[in-house]
Amino acid sequence: MKKVGLYFGTFNPIHIGHMIIANHMVEFSSLDEVWFVVTPQSPFKTKKTLLADNHRYQMVYEATKEYSKLKPSKIEFGLPQPNYTVNTLVHLREKYGEDHDFALIMGEDNLKGLHKWKNYEVILEEYSVYVYPRISEGEVEHQFKGHAKIQKVDAPIMEISSTFIRKNHKVGKNIRPLLPEAVWKYMDEMNFYR
Ligand SMILES: Nc1ncnc2c1ncn2[C@@H]1O[C@H](COP(=O)(O)OP(=O)(O)OP(=O)(O)O)[C@@H](O)[C@H]1O
Ligand SMILES: O=C(O)c1ccc[n+]([C@@H]2O[C@H](COP(=O)([O-])O)[C@@H](O)[C@H]2O)c1
């Protein structure tokens, strides 16, 4: 049975913060692989500056192609939008359930909003959640503190966001070190976020 951590995100674009977290999870937890699940439409995000699904997927592919334990996934392409994680998990289990044991990876910021997710109780009944630290406002709800299915992982804190990258690239700042080199090249060639 392969243990796979699912790292859901819009990845608009994927950056070294995502890479460092995913690599840390795969090297320092019981996970065998991490899949970056590229979400077409996150339930709580507006579509304003969102690049086409395939371009965001291509950047995740570029970032992970030399990492054997990190994989891009387009499983949510073609599923109804907005993309509710609980629905995707059902789909993944139908497709790979025989030989894959899935878990979720999320930042502490997402854990603080987990009680607003569709059927979050169902998710927690059936899946382990690996949480890494991230500086953010608000509190983790009491019901999630010490929860048997929620495991904290001491990954490094990375204060980088896709929003910061898009915004500063647009005004001509050099954000190249914040992206995997292949992602930078693709983004530059394609003139994204100009
Ligand atoms: N620097 C970071 N450190 C830890 N977690 C991060 C970091 N950046 C993003 N994440 C987490 O990665 C997942 C996917 O991230 P997402 O694609 O939404 O990136 P983002 O950088 O937060 O994007 P945006 O700035 O566009 O909102 C989310 O769970 C988010 O909390
Ligand atoms: O299922 C839900 O209700 C739900 C609500 C908010 C977010 N999510 C998932 O969490 C991922 C990260 O969310 P975001 O908005 O921080 O990019 C996103 O890609 C979604 O798949 C899922």
Order of SSEs? EHEHEHEHHEEHH
Mean pLDDT: 95
Secondary structure category: alpha/beta
**Unreliable sequence segments:** none
Total count of helical runs of at least 4 residues: 7
Q: What proportion of the residues is helical, as a percent range? A: 25-40%
Number of strands: 6
Distance between the amino and carboxyl termini: 44 Å
Main sheet overview = 6 strands, parallel
Q: What is the spatial order of strands in the main beta sheet? A: 3-2-1-4-5-6
Rg (C-alpha, Å) = 16 Å
- Overall spatial form: globular
Q: How much of the polypeptide forms β-strand, as a percent range?
A: 15-25%
What are the distinct ligands in this entry? adenosine-5'-triphosphate, nicotinate mononucleotide
Word description of this protein:
- By secondary structure, this protein is of the alpha/beta class.
- It is 35% helix and 17% strand.
- It contains 7 helices and 6 strands; from the N terminus they run βαβαβαβααββαα.
- It has a 6-stranded parallel sheet, with helices on both faces.
- Helix 1 links the parallel strand 1 and strand 2.
- Helix 2 packs antiparallel against helix 7.
- It is globular.
- The N and C termini lie far apart (44 Å).
- Nicotinate mononucleotide binds next to strand 1 and helix 3.
